[in-house]
Amino acid sequence: MSASKPRNSGLAAGLAVALAASVIGPALAAESDPDATINIGSLYEPQNLDNTAGAGQGINEAFNGNVYEALFRLTDAGTVEPSLAKDTKVSEDGLTYTFALQPGVTFHSGAPLTSKDVKFSIERVTAEASKSSRKNSLKTIASVETPDDATVVVKLASRSISLPYNLSYVWIANDEATDFQAKEDGTGPYALQEWRRGSSLAIARFDKYWGEKPKNGEVVFQYFTEATALNNALLTGSVDIITSVQSPDSLAQFKDNPEFTVSEGQSTTKLLLAYNDRVAPFDNVKVRKALARAIDDGKLLKAVWGDYGTLIGSFVPPTDAWYADLTKVDAYDPESAKALLKEAGYPDGFTFTIDTPNYDPHPIAAQFIQSELAKIGVKVQINVITANEWYTKVYKAHDFQATLQEHVNHRDIVFYGNPDFYWGYNNPKVIDLIKQAESSGTEAEQAEKLKEANTIIAEDAASNWFYLYPQIVVSKASVNGYPLNGLNSQFFAYGITKAE
Amino acid sequence: MLSVVIAAVILFVLLRLLPGDPANALVSVGADAAQIEAARKQVGSDLPLYEQFLRFAGSLARFDLGNSFVSSAPVLDEIGKRLIVTVPLTLMAFVFSVAISVPLGILSVVRQNRWYGALISVVSQLGIAVPVFWIGILLVTVFAVNLRLFPSGGFPSRGWQAPGAAFQALVLPVVTITVVMSASLIRYVRSATQDVLGSDYLRTARALGATFSHALIRHGIRNGAVPVISVLGIELASTLLGAVVVERVFALPGLGSMLLLGIEQRDYPNVQGVLFVSTLLVLLVGFAADLIQRSIDPRLRSRGVGGGA
User: Fold this and answer.
1) Chain B residue numbers touching A229 (CB-CB < 8 A)
2) From B38, which residue of chain A is nearest by alpha-carbon distance?
3) Closest partner CB to A232 (pick from B19, B145, B157)
4) Does residue A53 sit in helix, strand or coil?
5) Are residues B168 and B33 in the same domain?
6) Is B67 on the interface with A (CB under 8 A)?
7) To the nearest whole percent, how much of chain A has pLDDT over 70?
8) Domain limits at B48?
9) Are residues B17 and B124 in the same domain?
10) Which residues of A touch B71 (CB under 8 A)?
């Protein structure tokens, strides 16, 4: 910092004449402070610190890649890279994976990383008592062996092309750790410093980190329950970055202000109207297609997000290799919707209830759908429920006709291959394609199979997909190097720099 | 004691009447039926209601508030961390409100014919009519966003270890509560003062030669204080939990926001813990108000403990 001062003060002096005094601060700070504290504002406080125990998306944001690492890392661009697995060998039949571990890795407690920790960590997710939502995608793992401290051998019951991807969210923790919900013992570039529930979570640079050192000294996630309070915190300088802006209205105050940078990345969050495909009238493809044609998705997106967001004709975002533009399938066409309803045996329409989560944007979307469907004679009743109630009524008991929901995860098209899933879509062709895709020999083959499955669910109007949320990050102009895409809600903090 | 037991039973029943399941906070989309059952087993929501009640009553009798279902943190520790935000917030606002409302309340009666006497009445009526969150948002817009004098919300991650920042974080919330609390207290002080002014003893004191201000200070305040103190007790107790709105506007990690989140997640131990502790606090404040009233008014001392006005 001191070495750069003479050069910069000359610049600042020049600016001081031309500009208001408040500009001098940022102008002086052309160099970033390697020990800076980065304050990140977020609406997603984790419920606990264990990503296998319902901690919510907030724990991925704060911990994934920052505090915990996995054998692989899902980069912000969506590719899968080696992380704690230095080298990977796959047997000819695709059933045996041999991982050589990165040498010289230590946990935050000081213990060295060994293959036993990896085995322990994988088995924590696949265990009988595991509540991890990812457990099912790892059930092909037959055994985890540890021939020596630096080698892990994973044997599969059937081929799994997504194994490296799936292992990217299996956090490697010290096998001697006991409390995962309130403490951590990972290998990441930061260690947990203090978690003040309801307020903030601080992580500090871990000096014995094996890889490249973070470009800042400390990261504090500040949690808010209200978007307005969060925006005010950025406006007043108490946070440096907002990880994901939740409404376009608030963007106006940042957009034309040179003190802030507004960036738009790709998200994986989809808004959809899921029908209960098991029950009448939604067991009838024609009814589902009619409803899809009766709702103007573009108008809804505009109403909620203004000029942001992306229309999708199916469950797959454009960032996936198996994306196809399916927005033309059952595009907005109220006249043909009416004709289809007649064909399906409902010339006078029918009445159904949408279970609507009580938080944004669901209530607005439900009202929009209600008015759109009224035009083709279909009456919608809106039943507002809490997130907690949704799990009991819709997710578990399947006691619903239709529901609005946002699905956050990356690569979750596999849910359409599970007939027991809450929406009850059951097409043997799709189930088979999704299974085949997983046992593909190459990624090209996997993409081809999933693309076919994706096209079929769109043709079947299995659900009604409206749009992909935008992922908007706003920061102070002096802050750089943060990820933009927020895949699976992760937010790598180690590259963030702040000029002081 | 009986009131605590009754409160506990009502609490238990009301929480279970809410639709949903505490286990839902532990699973996410993608979990299968077996995993949901495992979560229910972990939090005990798979047990019959009477068994859940026995467990609840048993641990309450041992003063064990248990651990949160969702975060697994001990409830009592968490409440302690929240109280160090909520208690200073409430007490500061309370002290300021009393300091403002007692003199202004008296003035508004004694000087009701002057312009400021009328102004106090009008402003206090306005203060009661305006919702507390609106005042909070207004203060944030003016003093945080525009003037940049105070933070717009949040509490420092190091808490009271950073006392300057912690105090700064509480300035606007304290002002917000003070405005609302003073407005309603002024009305009580005002009506108590009016009662006093019309009383026989004040007339007698004047007749015996005391000046108006001497009579008011010597006899009036002491008498008028008795009903005001019981109102103060109620105000203080209700603000401890009622601060939730202000905590939300200013993103403060207080007791009220813990209760709100607990209800959202059906985190029974947290909700029960907060309500139990706040019931105790309310009883404590009531008891303190009672003691103070006794020390002021000798007529109350002959009554039994707890039977006060």
Assistant:
1) 140, 152-154, 249-251
2) A129
3) B145
4) coil
5) no
6) no
7) 94
8) 2-61
9) no
10) 47-48, 181-182, 197
Q: Does A199 touch chain B (CB under 8 A)?
A: yes
Check pLDDT > 90 for residue B63: no
Q: Cβ of A217 under 8 Å from any chain B Cβ?
A: no
Do B162 and B57 fall into the same domain? no
> Any idea which residue has 């990140």 for tokens?
A40
Q: Is the pLDDT of residue A2 over 50?
A: no
B82 in A contact zone (CB under 8 Å)? yes
**In angstroms, rounded to a whole number, what is the distance separating the alpha carbons of residues A426 and A435?**
14
pTM of the model: 0.85
- Does the structure's ipTM exceed the value 0.95? no
Query: Tell me: the pLDDT tens digits for A80-136?
Result: 999 999 999 999 999 999 999 999 999 999 999 999 999 999 999 998 778 887 788
Say if CB A38 and CB A220 are below 8 A apart.
yes
Instruction: Say if residue A361 is preceded by a cis peptide, omega within 30 of 0.
Output: yes
Selecting from A54, A179, A199 the residue whose C-beta is nearest the C-beta of B253 gives: A199
β-strand A260-265 against A379-385: which pairing, if any?
unpaired
- Between β-strands A379-385 and A351-357, what pairing exists: parallel, antiparallel or unpaired? parallel
For residue B66, the Cα-to-chain-centroid distance in whole angstroms is 24
pLDDT (tens digit per residue) in B47-61? 898 898 888 888 878
Instruction: List CB contacts of A200: < 8 A, sequence separation 6 or more.
Output: A194, A220, A221, A222, A223, B154, B155, B156, B157
Q: Closest to B30 (Cβ–Cβ): which among A48, A133, A228? A: A133
Is B153 close to A232, i.e. CB distance below 8 A? yes
Last residue of a domain, one of B13, B32, B61: B61
> What was the pLDDT predicted at A63?
96
Residues B104 and B198 in one domain: yes
Is the Cβ–Cβ distance between B294 and B308 less than 8 Å? yes
Q: Do B71 and A182 touch (CB under 8 A)?
A: yes
- Give the closest of A47, A223, A228 to B25, CB-based: A47
Tell whether B17 is covered by a domain.
Answer: yes
- CB-CB neighbors (< 8 A) of A56 in chain B: 28
Residue B68, in any domain of the structure: no
| pLDDT bracket for residue A282 (50, 70, 90) | very high
Kindly list the residues from chain A whose CB atom is less than 8 angstroms away from the CB atom of residue B72: 48, 179, 181-182
Identify whether B66 is part of a domain: no
Residues B271 and B153 in one domain: yes
pLDDT at residue B154, rounded to an integer:
87
Tell me the residue length of chain A. 500
pLDDT at A27 > cutoff 80 = no
- Is B24 part of the contact surface with chain A (CB cutoff 8 Å)? yes
Contact A44, A489 (CB under 8 A): yes
